[in-house]
Design a protein that fits this description.
5-stranded parallel beta sheet, 18 strands, alpha/beta, 32% strand, 6-stranded antiparallel beta sheet, binds flavin-adenine dinucleotide, 8 helices
Length: 340
């Protein structure tokens, strides 16, 4: 049995209506949880939402606040047509509602806030991006460029706040709005033309999959190296870390791990995720979301075979190169070797 993850109960202090479809939840994190809820710009929280027929579902929401401006941690949720949790939150969460939350996680965060940034957001993808903008303006000295795509003017989240930030940032912040209603659906050529004057610095992209693909293509046309491009996908979790699950699948194996220049051989029980084996043995294997969405636990398979229960982050070519997610891997062969 995989136990439920430890979560915290945090009251909502305020609900702010941002657009017809999006609202921000300002959290009143109790003083004793301040450490657990310290975060980096671009990270997300995982929220438990009660399910209609009993039980619950879990969803990730990025923090739209900055940890560097003294503002309370805030998440911003946009209603999705026919989506369960986003509509439940918009219809039910009020000031005083107590949310069950997993602490901040995720790797869509700059290593340093000092340099230049080229940021792309579409729709609710602005949420982690505005956290990076506010943080870079508050602590760095570089130029920050945001290219922000929306369906129409009414769907622009944080429009007035971005305007105010640009006005007070003394030309350090450039915001380029792109509206489908005026300019049509974004294409790689159009995005490359918009970004060309600003190419350079680290790039961060957040939005729906077709938008991510178009911006990646645009950046590649501009010669921006893929390793300087960071992407966040907004997907619904398939598993629920708030509830215990029975182990299924996989076989018992011997696991050879090369980590930090040392090799360890471990017993890997059937039905157990690789990352759980590493953590149980006290190895400092990297991880973050444990849901197959962030990629922080990626390592390379050098012998044997595994199956991943869920993979939202590795591309087909990564998998072909032997990359796997430790948090999602079950053994398929009696001997498995990996390296970090
Ligand atoms: C790291 C991360 C950060 C995120 N940050 C944010 C954020 O800051 N703000 C934000 O608004 N969202 C964010 N998301 C997305 C969020 O977690 C949810 O995915 C989103 O709110 C939709 O959830 P839902 O329950 O409303 O929709 P779901 O019920 O999960 O449905 C989503 C869509 O899938 C369709 N669908 C559902 N079930 C099926 C099915 N069986 N077959 C076919 N289609 C189906 C629905 O019609 C709907 O269009 C983030 C996601 C991740 C992974």
């Amino acid at each position: 049995m995989t136990g439920p993850r430890a979560y915290h109960q945090v009251p909502v202090a305020e609900v702010i209506s941002e657009t017809d479809e999006a609202c921000s939840l300002v959290l009143a994190v109790p003083a004793e949880l301040a450490g657990a809820f310290s975060y980096r710009p671009g990270q997300f929280l995982t929220v438990r939402v009660p399910a209609a027929g009993g039980g619950s579902v879990a969803r990730c929401y990025s923090l739209s606040s900055s940890p560097h401006t003294g503002d309370a941690p805030t998440i911003t949720v946009k209603r999705i047509t026919d989506g369960y949790a986003s509509n439940w939150i918009a219809d039910n969460v009020r000031p005083g509602t107590v949310l069950d939350l997993l602490p901040p996680a995720g790797t869509f965060s700059p290593q340093s806030l000092a340099g230049d940034f080229l940021l792309f957001a579409a729709g609710s993808g602005i949420t982690p991006v505005i956290s990076i903008i506010k943080s870079a303006l508050a602590t760095g000295r570089g130029r920050v460029v945001l290219i922000y795509a929306n369906r129409d003017e009414r769907s622009v989240i944080f429009g007035p706040e971005l305007h105010r930030l640009a006005a007070t940032a003394e030309e350090r912040l450039v915001v380029v709005h792109r509206l489908d209603s005026l300019h049509g659906t974004p294409t790689a050529a159009a995005m490359a033309a918009l970004a060309r004057p600003y190419a350079g610095g680290e790039a961060f992209i957040c939005g729906p999959d077709p938008y991510l693909a178009v911006v990646r293509q645009a950046l590649s046309q501009l010669g921006v190296p893929a390793k300087g491009v960071h992407v966040e996908r907004f997907l619904s979790l398939q598993e629920n870390p708030f509830e215990a699950t029975e182990p299924t699948g996989g076989t018992a194996a011997a696991l050879e791990v090369c980590l930090d220049g040392e090799t360890h051989t471990l017993e890997w029980p059937a039905g157990t995720r690789m990352l759980d084996v590493l953590i149980d043995q006290g190895l400092a294997a990297p991880f973050s979301c444990r849901q197959g969405v962030c990629g922080a636990c990626a390592c390379q398979l050098t012998a044997g075979q595994v199956e991943m229960a869920h993979n939202e982050v590795l591309e087909a070519e990564d998998v072909a190169d032997g990359y796997i997610l430790a948090c999602q891997s079950l053994a398929l062969t009696a001997q498995v070797s990996i390296t970090y």
